[in-house]
Every structure is written in structure tokens, then in C-alpha cells.
């Protein structure tokens, strides 16, 4: 870790994006991002703008992504493999789909220096600790995290430096995690503009099952159902999709690999929340069948208040913003 010393790099033509602060000194010497897609490239962009690390290293399993990252100039070094990217690095952030995190951990294990921190951004946390933890040497610190910020887009062109500004990043340290390594990961996310919250991986997975995973499943399902009906209704599904349905199509266009892995790795929590969801939707169907307007009105009043609370807390724009990714100054 870098203890002190002023490092001022000139960033040709770029000013620090709103909500990000340029650091007087880097937090770490060498930061590696494995998988510079939407989330990884956003970390690299924000790290570049803030001067978070003296050297930014990245790699990707896909050679076309490595080439694109070079073209975009997102890192100081683009390594050919994960093992080479991780060698001699202070912090490695694994930004690949949840199902590939453990295999990356296995690939880098031998090349990590003692005291290095390995983190990730996976949308599911307990499986990362269970599967990646045993593959890493005892001399490194596994401190998983999850930035609760994203879009439906993927790849290095989709990222932007301000993605994490004023969003939560949930850090889920395993039992007996080294406090200074936990503090470093928290400081990293704060430097990227996020607000940090700590919880166990199990609690994270339960909370995110209802706030993120089941909503995505519902969106995938409703768009799938509508697409099946399209044969019956001809082009009406597309023609009249300017309203609520359109909001679902945004969510349902999210990356298939990422979401397949989320559901396969958070099975228990998702099934538990889905069970509860099914009970509640059955109650709504009953209210409609029996003309129970009061039950419908009461629920819709409660949910409207929840939406307004979220907006008041500044965590959502008032209207769906389909072009959020265009906030990027790097594109
Ligand atoms: N998209 C979101 O909204 C969002 C938000 C928060 C967290 N996450 C989590 O972040 C992670 C990345 O998501 P993303 O949306 O940035 O995905 P992405 O598809 O944009 O990028 C992932 C990158 O990882 C690379 N990759 C895949 N397997 C690899 C391997 N074995 N070794 C090296 N590179 C590999 C891919 O080629 C791709 O470039 C996922 O775990 C996801 O759950 C996503
Ligand atoms: O805004 C979106 O498009 C998202 O779906 C982002 C979202 C979410 O559900 O809030 C999706 C998955 C991540 O793990 C975190 C954030």
C-alpha cells in the first residue's frame, strides 16, 4: 500500500467527474481489474480520474475486450492472462460473472503476493466466499464486495466513471477477516464515490434476492410471456410497449450470462423470496376476482409511498432513465 507522497498525474483533457474527488496520494500502488466489462471498466475509469492507484492493470479472457481496453486507454497495462495481471498486485478486483469468479481465483492464486487483497463485485456473495476462499493462499485477504449500481448494458464501452457515485457498495468480509484489509476495500469504494455498508454474505444474498434478483426474474418472465403471446396478438406487444412494459424490457435485456449465474448461485434465497412473492400475487388475484377494491387500493398506496421514499433518499431518478450509461465522459 502507498503510505504517503503526492502523486499528481496530468489527465489530458479530462477533469474529475462530478461526485469524484482527485486524491492527493494513491490508495494503492498497483490495482488489477480482471474482467473490464460494465463494472470493471467503470472501476478503471473512476480509479483513473481519482488517482486511486499508481498503476492500473487489467485483463480479460476475451482477446477482443483486451484490444478494446487498449484502444480506450483504460489501464496502464493490459496483461495477457489473469495470473499475469495479479502478479505483484496490491488489490485484485475480480469483475467477471459470478460463475467464473472461483476459476479466476484459482488461476491467480499462485501469483499473488503475501498480504494482497482479492475482492470481487459479484451480485451474489456467499458462493464467492465458499468457492473462491478455499482456492486462495492463507497469506492473502479475500474481502468480497458488491456495488449496487449497474445498467442493462455490458462490456468495456458501457462503463462510466460516475457509476458508483452515491450508490451503495456492500462489503461482506468473511469471518475473521483482517480489519485493515476490510478498511482498505471500504476506502476504495468510498474513493469511487460509493457509500459503504457491511453485512454478512448470507444476509446480503437474502436482501438482494428481493431487491434485485427476484425483480429481474419477474422482468424476464413477463417479457417472455408477452413474447409468447405475440404470436396471438401479432405485433401489438411491440406497438404498445411505450408504458410499464417498456420498463420491464429494459431490465429483461440485462446480460444472460450474468443473470444465469446469479440465479444458479443464489438459489435458496431466490426460491424463498419467490415463494413469498407467489403467495402475495395469489392474494392479489383473489382481490381482483372478488372485487376487493380496498385491498388493491391499500397495497397500491403503500407501494407508491415506497417509491417516493426511494426518490427522496436520492437513490433513483423520478423517471426511468433508459440512457443512464450515456453519462459517461469517456465514451
Ligand atoms: N451489470 C450490473 O448491473 C452489475 C452490477 C453490480 C455487480 N455486477 C456483477 O459484476 C460482475 C460483472 O458484471 P458486468 O455487468 O460488468 O459484466 P460484463 O459482461 O460487462 O463484463 C464481464 C467481463 O468478464 C470477462 N470474463 C468472463 N469470464 C472471464 C474469465 N474467466 N476470466 C477473465 N475474464 C472473464 C468477460 O469477457 C467480460 O468482458 C458480475 O459478477 C455481476 O454479477 C453487475
Ligand atoms: O439498474 C440496473 O439496471 C440494475 O439492474 C442494477 C442492479 C440492480 O438490480 O439494482 C443489478 C444487479 C447488480 O448486482 C446491482 C445492481
UniProtKB/TrEMBL annotation:
<protein>
    <submittedName>
        <fullName>Cyclohexadieny/prephenate dehydrogenase</fullName>
        <ecNumber>1.3.1.12</ecNumber>
        <ecNumber>1.3.1.43</ecNumber>
    </submittedName>
</protein>
<keyword id="KW-0560">Oxidoreductase</keyword>
<dbReference type="InterPro" id="IPR050812">
    <property type="entry name" value="Preph/Arog_dehydrog"/>
</dbReference>
<dbReference type="InterPro" id="IPR046826">
    <property type="entry name" value="PDH_N"/>
</dbReference>
<dbReference type="GO" id="GO:0047794">
    <property type="term" value="F:cyclohexadienyl dehydrogenase activity"/>
</dbReference>
<dbReference type="InterPro" id="IPR008927">
    <property type="entry name" value="6-PGluconate_DH-like_C_sf"/>
</dbReference>
<dbReference type="Pfam" id="PF20463">
    <property type="entry name" value="PDH_C"/>
</dbReference>
<feature type="domain" description="Prephenate/arogenate dehydrogenase">
    <location>
        <begin position="29"/>
        <end position="318"/>
    </location>
</feature>
<dbReference type="Pfam" id="PF02153">
    <property type="entry name" value="PDH_N"/>
</dbReference>
<dbReference type="InterPro" id="IPR036291">
    <property type="entry name" value="NAD(P)-bd_dom_sf"/>
</dbReference>
<dbReference type="InterPro" id="IPR003099">
    <property type="entry name" value="Prephen_DH"/>
</dbReference>
<dbReference type="InterPro" id="IPR046825">
    <property type="entry name" value="PDH_C"/>
</dbReference>
<dbReference type="GO" id="GO:0008977">
    <property type="term" value="F:prephenate dehydrogenase (NAD+) activity"/>
</dbReference>
